[in-house]
Amino acid sequence: MKKTVVSASLSLALAAVMGLSALAADAGLISPAAGNSADTAPERTYTIQVNGEDTGIQACVMVPLRAIAEKLGFQVTWSNGTVLVDNGVMHTTVTIGKDSYIVTTSNPDLVGMSAPFSLGAAPYVTDGVTYVPLGLFDALLGSKEGTIAVEGSKILIHTDSGSTELANPFTDCTTLKEAQDLAGFSITVPEASSACKETRIRVIKGSLIEVVYANGEEELCIRKGSGSGDVSGDYNFYAQTKSVTVDGLQVTMKGADGEIRLATWSSGGYTFAVSSSQGVSASEMTNFIQAVK
Questions:
Q1: 37 and 126 inside one domain
Q2: Nearest CA to 58 among 49, 67, 69, 68?
Q3: Start-to-end C-alpha separation, the chain
Q4: N or C terminus: which one in the chain shows less Cβ crowding within 10 Å?
Q5: Are 56 and 185 within one domain?
Q6: 181 DSSP assignment
Q7: Domain that residue 49 falls in
Q8: pLDDT beneath 70: ranges in the chain
């Protein structure tokens, strides 16, 4: 069995109701309780003691979203104050400043969507880094016992592909050729612009290729998959949706305030998606569509 362990220092960040003190030695980890409503506090939180005296203060550990999510195989996409966390099977969209979370899944063997739940603290951004409660990853990994544990000054996150937890379906690739060989089909994408600081390539063997151009939190994601379903991984609601024709292709564009954040279409037995975290003009999105094959 393949096992991945991600460690995070307890000193990353703590969000408390009244302030910070020492962690109780037997503190439990935050985990959304089944059936919790958005205004219900989580069943398990850290309790804080001062000189051995219980303060009655509860706190949750806040961790950097992107750093941990990507270690666990999730893609993180910013979009107008919300952040989509997606690994192709499990998805959640968090809203900065809002302590309400919903986890959805594309796995037909699992319940499609959780009830809204609270984790005791809202996501926030500081120095360009987004922080979320650690309990969000517990939910995304199936809320299985032993997934998250505390050992001394470390928080351990365990993912085990041999258990009932969901394995990361993506494989990282260093070249497009490597991705194409694993996927079993080819893909054509536009050249990276001079503003692009990072290019990431991932593949789900036999079914999907993903190419991401990134500059900090700004990302352009291109996906091509076999079949005709929606492979965008974007489960946001957009105020504006329109159908357009681009070089004979019927394309659905979605966005808001005149900016396009998502385009999807199908052609030749394959399905395509281009998404922009910051939004682009319709003409810019059209150029991307024409470049993707």
A1: yes
A2: 49
A3: 37
A4: N
A5: no
A6: H
A7: 3-160
A8: 1-46, 106-115, 160-168, 235
